Amino acid sequence: MAEGTAPAALGDSEFDRDTAVAARAAEPGAYDTGLSRGWTIMGAVNGGYLLAVAARALRDALPHPDPFSITAHYLTPSQPGPAVVRTQQVRAGRTMSTGQASLFQRDEQGNEVERLRVLAAYGELDALPDDVRTSAKPPVMPGYGDCVGSESAPGGRPVAGDTAILDRLDLRLDPATAGWAVGAPSGVGAIRGWLGLADGRDHDPLSLLLAVDALPPTAFDLGLKGWTPTLELTAHVRCRPAPGPVRVSLTTRNLAGGLLEEDAEVWDAEDRLVAQSRQLARVPRG
Amino acid sequence: MAEGTAPAALGDSEFDRDTAVAARAAEPGAYDTGLSRGWTIMGAVNGGYLLAVAARALRDALPHPDPFSITAHYLTPSQPGPAVVRTQQVRAGRTMSTGQASLFQRDEQGNEVERLRVLAAYGELDALPDDVRTSAKPPVMPGYGDCVGSESAPGGRPVAGDTAILDRLDLRLDPATAGWAVGAPSGVGAIRGWLGLADGRDHDPLSLLLAVDALPPTAFDLGLKGWTPTLELTAHVRCRPAPGPVRVSLTTRNLAGGLLEEDAEVWDAEDRLVAQSRQLARVPRG
Fold first, then answer.
1. Which residues in chain A are contacts of B231 at CB distance < 8 A?
2. Residue A123, Cα to own-chain centre: how many angstroms?
């Protein structure tokens, strides 16, 4: 966040404006939106941002507000510009509902092309009981001040090319998992960092969907370069996050057959595991 | 497997017969099937079996044979008896395709009710490159002969009531994770075991979908009793399994807010991680 400016409020921030959806009066369940160039990297629209846009349409379409479990299949590359999200209520129960969404954009010929398809279960986080009985531990990593921002990475920003999304994020990597930026990946397959939004907006369940896919890919820490296209990503949002940046821990344990899984854990300032995700992605060819 | 009988062959076994689907001539993409009473426990049709039925219909409907990533949302309780699976090809690419399926049954009034909805990416496991670079290690557990079958559990079968599925499985639990059967759960939230099919059929990608949801729930090892209904389950099949029983390792790290995640890893006889899954389930009320 720039010095001397007030943090952006939940509901009035870059992320909120760029994920806004508008219900079509003439087509029930359909929402117009515009994919922002601000959440791209190397020309590609970030998959977590796309998921958040679809999730926001589903939040409007379903009787419950929060994505407890949400799966996206990425079908074709999204582009900055207009898009429409079509939603369907699959089931509505008392405490949970299930919905489906597809995000479409028009190609050069004006034909609609499906970019991603989403299946999700929504509930109300604030209505859940308070029981917590977890054996999961927060990631062991330095404090926010001892992690490295992209602006201070040796040799400059670690990712070459179009890095618009880095201007929207307050991302500080654990130096132990940032060696790839200077040609010395650890080989472990882990990336850890603190993640806030650059304008100071706090996290909410929707921005956690961004958080699980906003760090550099674990493939970088394995010494692989290039793009790691996500085939499928499933995220569970388990708790409303406390104010402040979250800690995100990414790990890959099984790279095989040209594919890898990438697991994310997101921990809030109160040491609660607020989100988990797993994605299946293609190994970079580079 | 009963002594003195030949093992059932892939394609000609209880599992194959009970997951068989028949394309409806008059309705493209629709498949009739019958849910078998043989895969029920405590009156409920096993979620992994249901996933395998839907996956089999998708295998027929899509141009690629193997479920690389498959997600199911369980909407209403399935019953043994007739069902129809309606499939949709979402996208067909050169090496992968995406499909959707819904399984319906009729209620007492004759109305169709959706039981589960599935979204999946299919590819061809045998066409994947041979690269393996994994840091994941097989679970540390006793050999098949030193694990305990349900028939030899102290006090008899560990699960009371209708346990038809146990007759179809060759399930041998690591004694360290079977204490709950005699009232002494470890409290760790882990269940490990060897899993084959009782008629000796070897595993294939479809039966791995059964395998990820066929062991007793981790909730038992946490000292919780009763049913753990799955809201959503996502499985990745990463490799065609070698012949013989697989090792399945289940863990739960975060029980909170009345929900828990259950992760499964499935390892084959050649020490390959052949499948991974995660499900979000409700904590038993008991």
1. 68-69, 96, 121
2. 19
Which of A182-186, B222-226, B257-261 is the most confident on average? B257-261
pLDDT of amino acid A285: 73
Q: How far apart are CA B142 and CA B173, in angstroms?
A: 9
Identify any residues that bridge with A10 across adjacent strands, giving them in sequence order: none
CB-CB under 8 Å, A119 with B73: yes
B238/A contact by beta carbon, under 8 A: yes
CA distance A106 to A104: 7
How many alpha carbons fall within 13 Å on the CB side of residue A74?
A: 22
Beta bridge partners of B122: B67, B97
Continuous segment of H or E residues that includes residue A280: strand A273-282
Among B55-69, B113-127, B149-163, B248-262, the range scoring the smallest mean pLDDT is: B149-163
What is the DSSP track for A159-187? S-S--HHHHHEEEEE-GGG-GGGGT---S
Q: What share of chain A is helix, strand, coil (3-state, %, to 5)?
A: 20, 40, 40
At B1, the pLDDT band (50, 70, 90 cuts) reads low
Q: Which helix (H) or strand (E) holds B221?
A: helix B218-221
Give the CATH architecture of domain B14-126: Beta Barrel (2.40)
For residue A249, name the pLDDT band (cuts at 50, 70, 90). Answer: very high
Q: Does B75 touch chain A (CB under 8 A)?
A: yes
* CATH classification for the domain delimited by A146-282, as one of 3.40.50.11270, 2.40.50.140, 2.40.160.210, 1.10.10.10: 2.40.160.210
Query: pLDDT band at residue B138, thresholds of 50, 70 and 90?
Result: very high
Assess whether pLDDT exceeds 60 at residue B159: no
CB contacts under 8 A, B 104-133 vs A, are 114, 117, 119, 121, 125, 128-133
Q: Is B69 on the interface with A (CB under 8 A)?
A: yes
Question: Given the structure tokens 């582009």, which residue do they identify?
Answer: A79
**ipTM over cut 0.90:** yes
Contact at CB, A261 and B276, closer than 8 angstroms = yes
Residues with Cβ within 8 Å of A243's Cβ and at least 6 positions away in sequence, in order, are: A202, A269
Domain A14-127 of CATH type 2.40.160.210: yes
